[in-house]
Amino acid sequence: MAHCFVTSFVAYELVKSAKALGLSVDEDLTVKAALLHDVGRAFTRGVLHAVKGAEYLAGLGYQRELLLAVERHVGAGITEDQAAQLGLPKRDYVPQTLEEKIVSFADKLVEGTSILGPDHVLARFEREFGKNSQQLEMAKKLIDDMRNIYERSSVPALLGWKSNEKLELYL
């Protein structure tokens, strides 16, 4: 649960930065999706939690855009071919909208309840998937897509922060 709170805070900071850059982004949708992105972990582990979470939230009446952000937050996205190999319903889980990219990126920046930087994310993907993996390339693309927003946000100043330190969240 604490991971989701920190992820939603990071997403909120990224949304503020995107808006300051003149980009159109749905703040309410993005922060809610970041807060709910791991709800599927109540039902299952692994990448399937994204699908199960979206299904659960659909049953509660959440809008399609939020469901897609929850479903597409895993990894740096999962292609339709990768989904089939992982036992997921065969469809594309790659973040498409700015809101989806912010939720996925914020989740990658928060490990447990620690806020980490893009270099740490890339090192983790390289360790977990390998130097020449499609997942590492997708992580690089997500980071490149988000770099301008990230660098102009308050998030770099928070690197290394852990939840046992005081941080007031204004959501």
Read across the widest sheet, the strand sequence of neighbours is 1-2
Note the gap between the termini.
Answer: 16 Å
- C-alpha geometry: globular
Q: What is the residue-mean pLDDT, rounded to a whole number?
A: 91
List the helices and strands in order.
Answer: HHHHHHEEHH
Q: Helix fraction?
A: 55-70%
Strand fraction band?
under 5%
- Let me know the number of strands: 2
Low-confidence stretches are: 165-171
Describe the structure concisely for a colleague.
The protein is mainly α.
Task: Summarize the structure in words.
This protein has eight helices and two strands; from the N terminus they run H-H-H-H-H-H-E-E-H-H. The chain is mostly helical. It has a two-stranded antiparallel ribbon with strand order 1-2. The longest helix has 19 residues, at about 1-20. The model is unreliable at about 165-170 (pLDDT under 50).
Key descriptive features of the protein:
171 residues; mainly alpha; two-stranded antiparallel sheet; 8 helices; 2 strands; globular
